[in-house]
Each structure stands twice: as C-alpha cells, then as structure tokens.
Specification:
The chain has 130 residues and is an alpha+beta fold. It contains 3 helices and 5 strands. The chain has a 3-stranded antiparallel sheet, with no helix packed on it. The protein has a two-stranded antiparallel sheet with strand order 4-5. α1 crosses α2. The model has no long low-confidence stretch (mean pLDDT 96).
Length: 130
C-alpha cells in the first residue's frame, strides 16, 4: 500500500481552489452557473480525469510490455449522480492493428487500472479537524 499526500487550499475567489501535490499545482473551480469562475475543472471532473488518465496509462503500459500495435487510446467518461448511487460510463477507444483478442485483453486491463480498483472497492474516509 502506498501513501500519497496532497494539499488543497481555498482562495479569496469564490470556489477557486489550489490543488498541490508533490511537484504540481492545479486549480479546481465550479462552473459559472454554480457560482464559480470556471477557472479549472470541478471536483467531479477531476475524479473522471483521474480515472481516464489511469486507464490510458495502464493500457499503454500493458500494450508496450506485450508489444501490441496500440497506436492511440481515447477514454471518454460520463458521470451521472442518482439519489442512491453514482454511475460512471467509460468508453475506451483503441487505435492500432489489434486483434479482437488483444482488444478484449486491453479492456480487461482498463478495468484493472489502480484508480478503477480504488473506486470499485470499499473506501473509508476519515475526516478530522486540524
């Protein structure tokens, strides 16, 4: 199990948030319709972006190791929030000279990316005041 640490800081601008990781700084915000300045992706968009990035990287790593002719990958994601559950639809588009067996294997690999595993396993969140 690996530990990751990030820091999130509020700003004087309505809903603009600074996201800091070890070597990077990003901005999150809400849309103008939701009272933000639309200066960066929303928290839910970051969630989808994280899953999409992990899917892309994991599939490419596997294809490279197995010397598959994967020329490109596009991951499209959509999040729908219901009253008692949340549904994420992920469409993985593979480009390259791949057999049907290779395509099916890469779909299995996409479903095994670390962020997918995190989101589909029980998650415990402990919140404390600092």
């Amino acid at each position: 199990m690996s530990d990751l640490e990030v820091t999130v800081l509020s700003t004087p601008e309505n809903y603009k948030t600074i996201l800091r990781s070890k070597n990077h700084e990003l901005i999150a915000d809400e849309s103008k319709e939701d009272g933000g300045g639309d200066l960066g992706p929303s928290p839910h968009e970051f969630l989808l972006l994280s899953l999409g990035a992990c899917t892309d990287i994991t599939v490419r790593m596997y294809a490279q190791r197995k010397k598959m002719d994967l020329q490109g990958i596009t991951v499209e994601l959509n999040l729908t929030k219901g009253t008692d559950h949340t549904e994420i639809q992920r469409i993985v588009k593979l480009e390259g000279n791949l057999s049907e067996q290779e395509r099916e294997r890469l779909l299995q690999v996409a479903n095994a990316c670390p962020v997918h595993k995190t989101l589909t396993h029980p998650i415990q969140i402990e919140t404390k005041l600092g």
